[in-house]
Amino acid sequence: MDSVNTTDGGFDGDYHARNSNRRQILMISAEILRQFELEPGAIHENVVIDGIDVMSLQEGQQLKMGEAILEVTTPCEPCVQMDRIKQGLKNALRDRRGMFARVLRPGPIRVGDTVEC
Questions:
Q1: Which domain holds residue 37?
Q2: Rounded to an integer, what distance in angstroms lies between the CA atom of residue 12 and that of residue 18?
C-alpha cells in the first residue's frame, strides 16, 4: 500500500478508527524495527517514521504528515502480544514501543511523506 486516507477517527477502515479514541494511529521509529530485525507492521504499528525519535514527541504536539495533521496523545505500552512475535520483545520495547496520535485534520498520507513537527 502506497497511501492511506485518514478520517476524523483515524485510518479509513482501521479497527481503532473512532472519533473519541486517543489511540487512533500508532507511530514507531524505524530505528526500533531495525534494531530488533522486524519488518514494518510486524508489531502492529500503523506508521513507521525514519529520522525522528518518536518517543521524544510530546503529548499534545502536532505533526503534519502528508496532508493530515495529527496530535500526539500517549505512549504505547508493550503488551504480551509482543512476546508472541519475538520472545523477550515486551520487556525490550518498554519505553520504546511508540506513540499514539489522533487525527486533527484528515487527509491522505503517502509512503515517503515528510513528517513536520
A1: 3-110
A2: 10
